[in-house]
Write a structure and sequence with these properties.
326 residues, mainly beta, Immunoglobulin-like, Tachylectin-2, Chain A, 5-stranded antiparallel β-sheet, 2 helices, 20 strands, 43% strand
Length: 326
Amino acid sequence: MRKIFLILGFLILLFMFISCVETQTYTVIFNSNGGTPVQTQTIKHGECVVKPEDPTKGGFTFVFWSSQASLVTEYDFSTKVESNMYLYAKWQDASIEYKDCPGKGLFLPMEVGYYASEPKVFVEEDVTYVYYVSNVNKGDYSLEAIYVVTINEDIVSDRTQVLSRSTDGFDSRRVNSPSVIKGDFAYKGDNYSYLMAYAGNEISGNLSFQIGLACSKTPFGPFIKIDTNPFIEYDSLIYGSGFGAGNPSLVNVPDTHFTMLFYTFGESTLTQTRVIDCDFTNLDAIVKDSGFRTVTVAGLTDYTKSKVSSSISFIIAFASPKMIFV
């Protein structure tokens, strides 16, 4: 008899627990990120959030709701709710036309066995050139080079190799992070129209990078490396084991002969984005207007809301009374 009462008691407690769980409710708060307010919902345990009408926001187009403040992935409204939660609205600037290249992935038509990384875009006379880093041989990731493709609507050209690593020296192991500008450049008695800054190293891994320069008569190369490379040096005996000098970004300053060279400088204990002003018109005798300056980061963050100032491409935008780089 005692066992019967124990079993009945256990069943009653189990029933009460299940009933309690089933009647548990959760609060779902919608953060419209500056859009029109959306009413909070109270959802029973195991039920789904009711998708609200899309909010509105002047100058922006609503994209989706996300359960992540970083807005990386879209929330699935068929998901059963088991806790209190926030949903965040993601927006796109309505003044910008967003286009995809069907079937091309991230613009680049990569086959299995090849990778593509560190793309930089250069536009000339409505032709878009994408410079990027890839492995030379299929399935072999030990040898990389810099390539370029052109994009016309959704058509991507075959890749052309424009720069490879040297047999010895600072860039004998890796070459990456290409940045290309157009201008008038003289080198060894000849004239060139395109200048590339790139990073290279001579050891395995992402350490001790230095920055080199190369010039070409066409955007398809070949780019000729200048004899005085590396242009931006990194000495591990002075700075310790670190990333080095890399991620170069060239920006022509309008109505002058000067070019601003932005780059990442990573020591063993510190990483900064720096910039120097240079006159590259004579690559046999490059003029540096001043020493490097540290780039002040204002408002630039990653998804963790931490300040970020590396691997950045820069363009100039004039906004009185300041010149802004984005």
